[in-house]
């Protein structure tokens, strides 16, 4: 189980969040830009010290301000993947991966070959980060984080800077990690599609506060797909037939209607 609670003032912004996540699934922190999602990850990673905070991963207490417990970031056994891959440009892909591999001093639960296989990056090992596509760089960044043998993986909008094709590619690999390793993850996004695809538990954050949490199906609006036109200005949505005169949208477009 992951337990997080944090209260912190950042200038005029107040962060006040509390939630729990599953021990072997993806907890999605969902909300608009500036809501406090990345600030929450910084507290979990130990990069930021909140005035009042509790961070527990499994049986390890990483932060407890009441008990004056604070584990240094490099000792938290947490892997972090940012929006930009942040690979070392002067190192090959293999040497970037070995940086993560050498960070661990305990048991290696995730094998070198296993991580490379799941992320399909074996053919990239001798290449330089500057010769990789955006999607390839993110896969290598995920691999480096995995090979550090984390107890928790943090992904801060890891596909938001990619085009649609690369985004779908990386998301497939993240989903594969979830199935293969059962590693708990905190995944930050403002995309409903990503939250539905990956999430086991969703925490909705707005203006620095948790405004709801539950399954993605329960927390996100239900999408209905228009199946067919049944007459001029008339469409079938699920079991209902509704009038939508004046809609000018191409076939397959997503439109929001109310009645």
From TrEMBL:
<dbReference type="InterPro" id="IPR003439">
    <property type="entry name" value="ABC_transporter-like_ATP-bd"/>
</dbReference>
<protein>
    <submittedName>
        <fullName>Molybdate transport system ATP-binding protein</fullName>
    </submittedName>
</protein>
<feature type="domain" description="ABC transporter">
    <location>
        <begin position="2"/>
        <end position="232"/>
    </location>
</feature>
<dbReference type="GO" id="GO:0016887">
    <property type="term" value="F:ATP hydrolysis activity"/>
</dbReference>
<dbReference type="GO" id="GO:0005524">
    <property type="term" value="F:ATP binding"/>
</dbReference>
<dbReference type="Pfam" id="PF00005">
    <property type="entry name" value="ABC_tran"/>
</dbReference>
<keyword id="KW-0547">Nucleotide-binding</keyword>
<dbReference type="InterPro" id="IPR027417">
    <property type="entry name" value="P-loop_NTPase"/>
</dbReference>
<dbReference type="InterPro" id="IPR003593">
    <property type="entry name" value="AAA+_ATPase"/>
</dbReference>
<keyword id="KW-0067">ATP-binding</keyword>
<dbReference type="InterPro" id="IPR050334">
    <property type="entry name" value="Molybdenum_import_ModC"/>
</dbReference>
<dbReference type="InterPro" id="IPR017871">
    <property type="entry name" value="ABC_transporter-like_CS"/>
</dbReference>
